[in-house]
Write a structure and sequence with these properties.
The structure holds two protein chains of two kinds. By secondary structure, chain A is an alpha+beta fold. In chain A, the strands form three sheets. Chain A has a five-stranded antiparallel β-sheet with strand order 4-5-8-6-7. A four-stranded antiparallel β-sheet of chain A has the order 9-10-11-12, sandwiched between helices. In chain A, a hairpin with a 2-residue loop joins strand 10 and strand 11. Chain B is 25% helix and 13% strand. Chain B has a five-stranded mixed β-sheet with strand order 2-1-5-3-4, sandwiched between helices. In chain B, strand 1 and strand 2 form a beta hairpin. The longest helix of chain B is centred in the middle third of the chain and has 16 residues. Chain B is globular and about 55 Å long. The chains are: A alpha+beta, B alpha+beta. The interface between A and B is large, with 43 and 51 residues. Chain A: This is Xanthine dehydrogenase YagS FAD-binding subunit.
Amino acid sequence: MKPFAYVRATSLQQAVDAHACRPGSRYLGGGTNLVDLMKHDVETPTTLIDISRLPLNRVEELPAGGLRIGATVPNADLAAHPLVRSGYPALSQALLAGASGQLRNVATTGGNLLQRTRCPYFQDVSKPCNKRDPGTGCGARDSTYRDLAVLGHSEHCVATHPSDMAVALAALDAGIELYGDTEGPRQVAATAFHRLPGAHPEQDTLIRPGEIVTAVVLPPAAPGAVSLYRKARDRASYAFALASVAAVLELADGRVRHVALAFGGLAHRPWRATVAEQLLAGAPLTDENVLRAVDAELAQARPLRGNAFKVGLARNLARDSLAALAQACGGEPPERLP
Amino acid sequence: MHQAGSGSDPGGGPPHSAPDGAHRSRVTLRVNGTDRDLDVDHRVTLLDALRETLELTGTKKGCDHGQCGACTVLVDGRRANSCLLLAVAQDGAEVTTVEGLADADGTLHPLQRAFLAHDAFQCGYCTPGQLCSAVGVLGEAADGQPSHVTGTAAPSGPVTLTTDEIRERLSGNLCRCGAYNGIVEAVAEVGAGMNGADVTAPSSSAIPPRPDVIV
């Protein structure tokens, strides 16, 4: 690990000021990903600006409904929060499906959003990687490593985003609050926060240099809406998603009043399935309609060597999730096509 | 420089005596009930500070990347991978390692006794991390924190540590000897005791304390 200076921030403004005058600095939250990447020499900050003790560790109910989750709220605390468990079960379930108990105690809400891909070519400085070192090429694309994107990848990068939490936030229409030295405070939609790789895979998100994630804002949960998160992985616990789905459903008279579907493990960002959602809106939630919608979404998939299985996996996860939610809405699960 | 026990102070600026841009700082950690002042290179993890500076080698270095759980300790009462925590960022923290689990008179923690009674280790390398992690699990379950396998309709309040719950909650602690069955039995026994029985009582098989075993 390279030597670095350390600054403990006492205020948000002091943190962004410190970043502005120290080129090559990084903010430190829980550090569960950053410190690991520093050990690999993937991250070589000149200064760590520790923001973990800033007063951003509260979950507040908003006056008009909804929740504002401070950026340093640990993943474990957020998953266990009574208002998250009752109003946003997909978020609680996504957090609990990720990492281990030890990591969830330390990892923060903001850090979870900003964690980097676990593509082994990104983490190995001896390998080419356009995300880590732009212009060096992509070592993963033609490798035997299979946990790569099937949707939205580019010739420059085929990595997936590893977060479970971010997939739930995409389906729940969350907002991300940011604060920057020159930008001041701003809020962006969770669905817009993470990028597709295009020609610039080094940029995971639309965050600008020096900006800090200060909070995640959840809109009020609709009274009749239900949500869940399902994840398929190589072992029963403590593994990243091969494919996952966060789903929100509200039915009215057997028809879809609101549906949100987001996939994890398939792309460089949480993949909000807008094609499927549009096909399902207003329609009866039959197995036939669900399959037609999900298949239309996944028709965009371009599997790589060895990961075509993810398309079928995602299809089955979405189908089972919507059936379970239809039942949770008080209806019968749709009769399953053969 | 922070004074001993000043962990609740949010602090500020470059830590304490360190000049701006320095690569070392002085920190105070309260380890197993004793304040320890350290001068650390910022690159030093809590794990290395414990093992190499404080010579508390009970905490083990396995993967050094947060994947195996061998380095698990309790920081301000919460279990954490000490290999991923920078010592400088833990200034003022209260740390409990495996050396701090037994009573001052050498009476082993109920989990340590249960591990002996249930043959919950072979080589013992993962055991300090398993024990600290299990202490965390007991607290989290008593506190009503859910896990991935807790039913979504489960009532609030303490979570019963079934075999499925224990396996899920301890999934961040690997054991290459495969002593999982004994580990699960040991944690289940102590967890069941916490639901009413006296956890300070000797475990059912009444194996006498052997403080020499777990180091």
